[in-house]
Design a protein that fits this description.
Blueprint (H helix, E strand, L loop, with lengths): L2 H14 L3 E4 L10 E5 L2 E8 L7 H13 L4 E6 L5 H10 L2 E3 L1 H16 L1
Parallel strand pairs: 3-4, 4-5
Antiparallel strand pairs: 1-2, 2-3
Keywords: Endonuclease, Hydrolase, Nuclease
GO molecular function: DNA binding; restriction endodeoxyribonuclease activity
Protein name: Restriction endonuclease
Length: 116
C-alpha cells in the first residue's frame, strides 16, 4: 500500500467512526495529511506508513499543522511504532500517537461495525 493509499484508507476508517474527513494536498499540506471533524473536535492527522519506528519529526510536523489549521487536537497515526524521542515529544505537547496495535484495533472495530 502506498502512502497515498494509506491516507485514503485512514480517511475511510475515520469516516466509519462518524468523522467528517478532508484529505489535504499531497504537497504543501503544512504537516497534516487529514483534517477530521466531529462535534467540537477539529484534529490534524499526520499519517506515516513506515517499516521502521516513526521519529520525532512526524510529531513536530503535526504540531505545526495543528497551529496552521487552528485545530484543537493532533495525532500521528502509523502502521509502525514510535521512537523514544517521538513518544517524549508527543507526551510533552499533547499529541496523540496511534501505533500499529491501536490501528489494528480501529480496523477490527470498523470491520465489526460493518458486519453488524
Amino acid at each position: 500500500m502506498s502512502g497515498a493509499n494509506f491516507e485514503f484508507y485512514l480517511a475511510q476508517l475515520y469516516k466509519s467512526r462518524g468523522y467528517s474527513v478532508k484529505i489535504t494536498p499531497g504537497s504543501g499540506d503544512y504537516g497534516a495529511d487529514l483534517l477530521i471533524t466531529k462535534n467540537k473536535e477539529y484534529r490534524a492527522i499526520q499519517a506515516k506508513r513506515y517499516s521502521k519506528p516513526v521519529g520525532v519529526r512526524a510529531v513536530q510536523e503535526v504540531i505545526a499543522a495543528k497551529v496552521y489549521y487552528d485545530c484543537n487536537t493532533a495525532t500521528v497515526i502509523s502502521n509502525s511504532t514510535y521512537t523514544k524521542n517521538a513518544i517524549k515529544m508527543a507526551s510533552k505537547t499533547g499529541v496523540e500517537l496511534v501505533g500499529r496495535n491501536d490501528l489494528m484495533s480501529m480496523i477490527i472495530e470498523m470491520k465489526n461495525s460493518r458486519a453488524s
